[in-house]
Amino acid sequence: MANLKEIRTRISSVQKTKQVTAAMKMVSAAKLKKAQDAIVQIRPYADKLHEILSNLTGSLTNTDDNLYGVERKPEKVLLVAMSSNKGLCGAFNANVIKQVVALASGKYTDQNQRGNLEVLCIGKQANEILKKTYNVIGEHNKLYDTMSYENISEVAATIMAQFVEGKYDKVELVYNQFKNAGVQILTTEQFLPVKQDEEGNEVQSEYIFEPNQSDILGELIPKSLKTQFFKAMLDSFASEHGARMTAMHKATDNATDLIQDLNLTYNKARQAAITNEILEIVSGANALAQ
Question: 192 with 171: CB under 8 angstroms?
Answer without folding.
Answer: yes
